[in-house]
Amino acid sequence: MLNLNSRIKVYETKKLIPTSRYYEFNYVQNVTISSSYKTLTDTATIKMPKKVHTNLEGFNQGGFANANDRDEEKSIHDFFKLENYIEIYLGYDGDYKPAFKGFITSVKGDAPVTITCEDAMYACKKIKAVPNKIVEGITNAFNVITPNPTVTEEKFNPSDFFNKRLGALAFPFKINALDEDLGAMLIKRDQSVCQVFEQLNKQGIYSFFKMEKLGPVLTITNNPQQYGIKDLGDFIERNFIKVPLAGPLIKKLITTGLDVLGSQLSAATSAFSSDQFLGKAKFRFHHNIIEDNLEVVEEAVKNTRIRVEKHFPDTNTPVQIELGKSDGALTKTYKLHANGDDDGLPNKEVAFKKKVTEVAAELYQYAALRAIEKKPSGLKGSFTTFGEPFVRPTDKVIIENAEDKEKNGTFQVEQVDRSFGTSGYRQQIYLGRRVTV
Fold first, then answer.
1. What's the CA gap between 408 and 406, in Å, rounded?
2. Does residue 271 carry a pLDDT above 60?
3. Of 184, 211, 318, 203, nearest to 268 (Cα)?
4. When comparing pLDDT for 348 and 381, which is higher?
5. Is there a contact between 57 and 67 (Cβ–Cβ < 8 Å)?
6. Which of 221, 238, 264 finishes a domain?
7. Cα 94 to Cα 186: distance, rounded to the nearest angstrom
8. Which pTM value belongs to this model?
9. What domain range includes position 417?
10. Are 210 and 267 within 8 A, CB to CB?
11. Do residues 64 and 146 both lie within one domain?
């Protein structure tokens, strides 16, 4: 029988930056963690006894000499304080995996003490998107509101903006952001970084922290479900009758897998992954699937239209396409902008037509990405399993040995809820689209 193990490290912070002073606990009464790429913030709730003996094996006061020399009973409230940085490691038989890293947002109760936490998005809620350079002669990274109410980023690039804004603040996370010019974006000076993420979400761009071995990675992507060019081409083929025929050349560009979408198709992958997180796990019914409420769902496209426009600096007329039912209600218009590497639309007729054709194919792919994610083919619901193999949102899981053969296959993870404590270690894994491998 496998033995459960847990480790909790609580760091003192200075302006939300973890210091070298920390407290480590090898016992926890109960932990629940909820993580999803569809929500900005992952959360954790910890229950601890109200007293701790500092000479016991389950406690270590990191960074302090002779911390365990004497038996001293202290309140758990002495160690778990608001805005301290916290790391939660869970596993079996000495194998610890980082299940959560973030900040303490609430400490309440005495029997037991309940500690609630938010991931590193908590820091993004505290930081202004537009910094004040000088406030009363002192540089202030956290900012106050200045007289100028708004700032317009003429060519908003998530990678450039957030690396510049957050990279210099020494927070304990890395950034893996969409590298694409999104055009002008209006940012209010009283807005937090998190509120800018909310603005991006309205454009179909997701922001979330994905746990890696070396720490959380702020992931900003327009393709969290990791669709490829072939996925989008096949989708358009199935639904092409619903749009005005764009011409055989565009159809060929879309369906042959030519990647004209470029950096706009940004998958939620990370350069910081390791063997500790393989990104894929296998589960079998009657083996390591305890129970499920999974339901097979088929792709559904509503009787609506999506419009996508791409604007170029040398013309007032954008290249525009629509995907969906020709007489359906227009539900969304997405506006893309040529980046600095784009040469724009050429003047010569032949070159102009070729460029417009390529751009139109790109826009069909972009529109398909927005449409296909609404209700893709796959599974709806969740299944419960043990704490291993360890799974994160956007990972892939292989389901085998299901009585309903449609439940077998490879699917993407949308959400993971973990529970750890006296009743064991469990993961409730919510699935989404079927992945073609």
1. 5
2. no
3. 211
4. 381
5. no
6. 221
7. 50
8. 0.84
9. 280-298+377-434
10. no
11. no
